[in-house]
Design a protein that fits this description.
The complex is a heterodimer of chains A (264) and B (244). Helices cover 41% and strands 14% of the residues of chain A. Chain A has helices spanning 16-27, 61-74, 98-127, 151-171, 189-196, 207-217, 226-237; strands at residues 7-11, 31-36, 52-55, 80-83, 133-138, 176-183, 248-251. In chain A, helix 2 (61-74) runs parallel beside helix 3 (98-127) and helix 3 runs parallel beside helix 4. The model of chain A has no long low-confidence stretch (mean pLDDT 91). With 244 residues, chain B is of the alpha/beta class. Chain B has one domain: Rossmann fold (3-Layer(aba) Sandwich), CATH 3.40.50. Helices cover 39% and strands 18% of the residues of chain B. Chain B has helices spanning 16-27, 56-66, 89-110, 136-155, 173-179, 185-194, 204-215, and strands spanning 7-11, 31-36, 47-50, 69-74, 114-123, 160-167, 226-229. Chain B has a 7-stranded parallel β-sheet with strand order 3-2-1-4-5-6-7, with helices on both faces. In chain B, strand 5 (114-123), helix 4 and strand 6 (160-167) form a beta-alpha-beta unit. The longest helix of chain B is centred in the middle third of the chain and has 22 residues, at 89-110. Classes of the chains: A alpha/beta (264), B alpha/beta (244). The interface between A and B is medium-sized, with 28 and 30 residues. Chain B: It holds the Pfam family adh_short_C2.
Chain lengths: 264, 244
């Protein structure tokens, strides 16, 4: 129970990775606010797990203010914020419409900004108790190297990486640690959509073959699970990580450690 | 003539990338001395020293004879295609001797003899940043080159600049040796080409062009950096589902 007594809020909390984070936080004893567009989220089901649902469209400033007001009135502080809400548009720059570009930035970058902006006063209050508060953003290995046909997504994640370092600089002195997790291929509804989408090169081809090929390109010969990500989020959220700040934590089964693989 | 009046020493100029650099530097007006194990290759217009860069005493003696230098390119290198478990002590001495100790030997000897404003250019590799499979010692030796590059830039900054070029897959004998490892070398080559944004492998002249810029006074504010020239390969994810 490493998070006993801590208050956490997770955005995108009903998505694939978000759910795993919420489950782990609850198991570790935290009180968890589950923020998403709907109680069902992308998995289209709702578990009554003891968490508190908060309706939050991360692109709306009023929603961010209301969510944090709710946390303030109940607990007066926030120890942990996880900005996991995200979308991806599978298109090149040329194919991407201005509306799609703006929507990508609205959710992935502006959403991270807005939720953080209104959470920081509550996190500052939490840090006064003596242990640091932890803000965890979702970058991506795509913020370092590009997947084909994901231009806007890659750019939004690069923005999140830079914002992570900027917030770590600005709010470290106040006891708020800021890190980003940069997942590689994780088995989520977003990944399955990527496999099925035009941008994947799957083009309606055999998904099984495609999935196997993707696994085989990883040094670990598998893609990750939401639980793998939740394990690292849990570490960064807790006091064991009290010296960890301003870093981009790549978790990708070794995928980006290698040069393009020659077919040997 | 961008290198008129400059004296350059390029290690490993017999063939491949080194030869490309030697030829381009000479075309641009530099006086060039190169070296390698064994006698001078046919058709080389540059000065030649028979020298094994892994031999510190031999390097010190040869560099003393060279006198004042403006440009030094540490290009000499070897590769052994093995994992850590398969690599022998002999492999370690060969790869680290040439690629790591050789660069150290040459830099230690030449820096006191370089004119102010001089430029050291080390040939690192994309493999020093991300791993090529079954190239363990080579990958590690190139990471050493990257670290040494920054150290020299920081320690000797007022006098000399030091940068590294990280080539990707360049059409040389070394690249063919890599493809020879594949079950189907032709298929491997086709697959590798598809992973390059520019849809071709590099040529020694592509690297020589970067070396020329780093050797010239146009780059007088560039130091301590790694310059990747790889046709866009490492900008892309190793996972490219469109190719499966």
């Amino acid at each position: 129970m490493t998070l006993q007594g801590k208050i956490a809020l997770v955005t995108g909390a009903r998505g694939g990775i978000g759910r795993a984070i919420v489950a782990r936080f609850l198991k570790e004893g935290a009180a968890v606010y589950v923020a998403d567009l709907t109680p069902e989220g992308s998995l289209d089901k709702h578990d009554d797990d003891g968490s508190h649902f908060v309706k939050l469209d991360v692109t709306k400033e009023a929603d961010a203010i209301a969510a944090m007001d709710h946390v303030r009135s109940t607990h007066g502080k926030l120890d942990i914020l996880v900005n996991a809400a995200g979308i991806e548009i599978e298109k090149t720059v040329e194919e991407t419409t201005l509306e799609e570009w703006n929507q990508s930035f609205a959710v992935n970058s502006t959403g991270t900004f807005l939720t953080s902006k209104y959470a920081i006063p509550l996190m500052r209050a939490a840090a006064k108790s003596g242990s640091s508060a932890s803000l965890i953003n979702f970058g991506s290995y795509d913020g370092f190297i590009a997947d084909p046909g994901l231009a806007a997504y890659c750019a939004t994640k690069g923005a999140v990486h830079a914002l992570t370092r900027a917030m770590a600089c600005d709010h470290g002195p106040e006891g708020i640690r800021v890190n980003a997790i940069c997942p590689g291929y994780i088995d989520t509804p977003m990944l399955q959509s990527f496999f099925e989408g035009d941008g994947s090169g799957g083009g309606g081809g055999n998904i099984e073959t495609l999935q196997k090929a993707v696994r085989d390109v990883h040094p670990m010969r598998t893609y990750g699970t939401p639980t793998d990500i939740a394990n690292l989020v849990n570490w960064l959220a807790g006091d064991e990580a009290r010296y960890a700040s301003g870093q981009l934590w790549v978790l990708d089964g070794g995928l980006s450690a290698q040069v393009q693989q020659m077919k040997l | 003539m961008r290198l008129s009046g400059k004296r350059a020493f390029v290690t490993g100029g017999r063939q491949g990338i080194g030869r490309g650099i030697v030829d381009m530097f000479m075309t641009e007006g530099a006086e060039v001395i190169t070296c390698g194990r064994g006698p001078a290759p046919d058709g080389l217009d540059a000065g030649w020293l028979s020298l094994d860069v892994s031999d510190a005493q031999a390097v010190n003696a040869a560099v003393r004879e060279l006198g004042t230098l403006d440009i030094v390119v540490n290009n000499a290198g070897v590769q052994v295609e093995k994992t850590v478990v398969d690599s022998t002590d002999v492999d370690w001495d060969l790869v680290m001797g040439a690629n790591a100790k050789g660069v150290f030997n040459v830099c230690r000897a030449v820096i006191p003899q370089m004119r102010a404003g001089g430029s050291i250019i080390n040939i690192g590799s994309i493999s020093g940043n991300v791993a090529d499979p079954s190239m363990a010692l080579y990958n590690a030796s190139k990471a050493f080159v990257h670290g040494l590059t920054r150290s020299i830039a920081v320690d000797h900054g007022p006098t000399v600049r030091c940068n590294a070029i990280c080539p990707g897959w360049i059409e040389t004998g070394m690249l063919d040796a890599g493809f020879d490892l594949a079950k189907d070398p032709t298929k491997a080559k086709t697959d590798a080409l598809a992973r390059h944004a520019v849809k071709r492998f590099g040529k020694p002249d592509d690297i020589a062009a970067m070396a020329l810029w780093l050797a010239s006074d146009e780059s007088s504010f560039a130091t301590g950096q790694l310059f990747t020239v790889d046709g866009g390969m490492t900008a892309a994810s190793p996972l490219n589902p469109g190719l499966f």
